């Protein structure tokens, strides 16, 4: 995940730095900065929390693109009639991700 700050909207509250000081810092001008554009492993949840909590709404997130995704498939042994009868809405899914 990548993160950046649109400083035109930064209020300088410091909430982002309080939530995740490994990623955010308040500069000498009182505005937030990112320490590195690439979010370190283990910080993603806090960075999302900081973005959602930001009073100026200036934190921008860019998820890392997935190279391959396979989702919402049913195994070959499940017949079409069984799919229609499945009133519980059960399904099988597999997601394969490279490069994360």
Describe this structure in words.
This protein is α+β, with helices and mostly antiparallel strands and 100 residues long. The protein folds into two domains: 2-62, Alpha-Beta Plaits, CATH 3.30.70.20; 66-100, no CATH class. It is built from three helices and four strands; from the N terminus they run E-H-E-E-H-E-H. The protein has a two-stranded antiparallel ribbon. The relative contact order is 0.21.
Instruction: Report the uncertain regions.
Output: 67-74, 78-88, 90-100
Mean pLDDT across every amino acid position = 77
Question: Mind summarizing the main beta sheet?
Answer: 2 strands, antiparallel
CATH top level class name of the largest domain: Alpha Beta
| CATH topology name of the largest domain | Alpha-Beta Plaits
What is the domain total for the residues? 2
**Helix amount, in percent?**
10-25%
Q: Could you say which structural class the secondary elements and strand pairing correspond to?
A: alpha+beta
Shape summary:
globular
Written as H for each helix and E for each strand, in order along the chain, the element string is: EHEEHEH
The count of strands amounts to 4
User: If strands are numbered along the chain, what order do they take across the biggest sheet?
Assistant: 1-4
Q: What is the rounded distance between the termini?
A: 9 Å
Name the CATH architecture of the largest domain.
2-Layer Sandwich
What share of residues are in beta strands?
Answer: 5-15%
- Individual helix count: 3
How large, in whole angstroms, is the Cα Rg?
A: 20 Å
